[in-house]
Amino acid sequence: MEEIKNKVQESGLIQLDLADFKSKIEILEVDIAPQLWEGLILKEKDFRGWIKENDWQKYEKKAVYVHCSADAIVPTWAYMLVTSKLVQNAEVFCIGSKLDLEKELIKNEIKSLDISAYKNGKIIIKGCSDINCPEYAMSELLARLQPHVKSIMYGEPCSTVPVFKRKD
């Protein structure tokens, strides 16, 4: 009987899974809406009191997104006051949605990728992954890898879609 060979392994293809770029840091939220007076506006004195009394240490080494879930106009200074506390505690934060933060975390993970392991490689980016906004992650990964690799494909080794091939 003939020995079974792993043709994918022998081909030199490098398979990347987007799930590997999903940050493991805990994500927390700061919603400004509960601080609105009558659900409409912020009173600076009251908001500053909340800033002073809030336990900002609970955000230590966490990823935090800051937003207002109410349909209200929040002055810029309010976000600045929250930011001034998060700078001291949070690992990373953004003003925006949870998805905005997840995108930033993915981008940070991709930026930290050691490119030397992929130099002149043939890359396959897996098609199915447990990650929010996979098209964003795939585009960021492609932009990071493309200048350094021979080719990039999308999908699984048995059925790939060519995306990029360097002309030598």
Report the uncertain regions: none
Helix residue percentage:
25-40%
**Shape from CA axes?**
elongated
- Tally of helical segments: 5
Largest beta sheet, briefly?
A: 4 strands, mixed
Strand order of the largest sheet: 1-5-6-7
Number of strands: 7
Tell me the count of domains. Answer: 2
Radius of gyration: 22 Å
Percent of residues in β-strands: 15-25%
What are the secondary-structure elements, in order, as H or E?
HEEHEHEHEHEE
Task: Give the overall average pLDDT.
Answer: 92
Cα(first) to Cα(last) distance is 41 Å
Broad structural category: alpha/beta
Describe it for me?
With 168 residues, the chain is of the alpha/beta class. It folds into 2 domains: 7-22 and 114-165, no CATH class; 27-90, no CATH class. Helices cover 33% and strands 21% of the residues. β5 (122-125), α5 and β6 form a beta-alpha-beta unit. α2 runs parallel beside α3 (76-89) and α4 packs parallel to α5. The longest helix is centred in the middle third of the chain and has 14 residues, at 76-89. The mean pLDDT is 92.
Notable features of this structure?
168 residues, alpha/beta, four-stranded mixed β-sheet, 5 helices, 7 strands, 33% helix, 21% strand
